[in-house]
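name: query_chain
kind: protein
chains: 1
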Amino acid sequence: MKELWSELKGSEGLHGDCGPAIERAAAVAVREAKIEEPFAGLERKRLAKLAREWLEVERSRPPFEVVAMEEKRKLAVAGLELNGRIDRMTNSKPAATR
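structure:
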């Protein structure tokens, strides 16, 4: 999804045909995972299907832009310091006037 959001950049990127971006992102993920054929083809299809389903959910959100991805953060909770990684941070955009 990081690869996909790097290209789409936010809700405006969801308006057009996301198919090519989805295919590219799935190919990058499979390549990075070093999956070999014939499993690579199956995994690309699986990831593309999941991305299409998830982008349908994202289309129902109010307008937003992606402002950060894969960002490491430290969090203090009850005296414990935890290391984590934020998958994606978005910033709401004002709705367009009609």
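note: The chain has a mean pLDDT of 91.
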